[in-house]
Amino acid sequence: MPRQTSIQLTESTRRQAAALTGAGFGTFTDVVRTAIDRMYTQEKPMLTYQIGKIDTTPDVDHYHASTGGQTKTTLFIDPDRRIVGLYQAEDSGTYSSDVWHGLMLEEKITGYPSASAACELLTDNPDVIAIISGHATQWDGSNMYGSLTDEASAAWTRLVEDLNELAEIDPNPVQLWQADDWFSDVSDADLGLRPGMTDAEIIAMADKLESDARDDNAIIADGVESYLRSRLEDLDED
């Protein structure tokens, strides 16, 4: 159902609209609609952006590996190149120069949404368009820095919240596991371990077990091959 709204016109614009309606271009509403349609068609190329890397799979955070730390899914937008995506970031406690100066936008999100769901959310997203369109750069005498309009800043907040919510509602999120925990209830026989296994057999077994874990949305953080070799050493000793 059409919505009614009101607009303010300068005297010059009012005369132009009156001239167009008088020349047979329809009602005032027709003139406004036509003007908006033409402007949108002309400006639409400026409202496009690219989906970059979408990586929502956790990995070991090497800065905090001793405490079981894992990477964080991080939203990024490059307003200048018009690219949006997600990547896995380690918690180094530092920021790149571009992020520090607001030339690149980044924010860690909670959890690990599926890559397909995240890509769908980021595609043709009006908040992404508002962020890129509302980003400006300036020279402060020493560095280039970026800033967002109030509208773009609000859109950035909404986008982060939407991704956080997406991670929360994912029924089967990707999780990071230590090999000891993932295989804690699996016997040597069930794994297929036996004395005298060759390197090729161990590597093939590790690849198969890692693939099976990924099918269950699990990533083995410390590697399966080294874990199998450790258990095989114990088996050989017995």
Characterization of the model:
A hairpin with a 4-residue loop joins strand 5 (135-139) and strand 6 (144-148). The longest helix has 20 residues, at 150-169. By secondary structure, the protein is of the alpha/beta class. It has 10 helices and 8 strands. It folds into 3 domains: 13-46; 48-169, no CATH class; 175-237. The protein is 45% helix and 16% strand.
The amount of beta strand, in percent, is 15-25%
Mean pLDDT comes to: 86
Molecular shape: elongated
Main sheet strand line-up: 1-3-2-4
State the end-to-end distance.
78 Å
- Strands, count: 8
Structural class label: alpha/beta
Rg on CA atoms, Å: 27 Å
Q: In the residues, how many domains can be counted?
A: 3
The proportion of residues forming helix, as a percent range, comes to 40-55%
Largest sheet: 4 strands, mixed
**Can you write the helix and strand succession as a string?**
HHEEEHEHHEEHEHHHEH
> Uncertain runs with pLDDT below 50, 5 residues or more?
none
Count of separate DSSP helical elements = 10
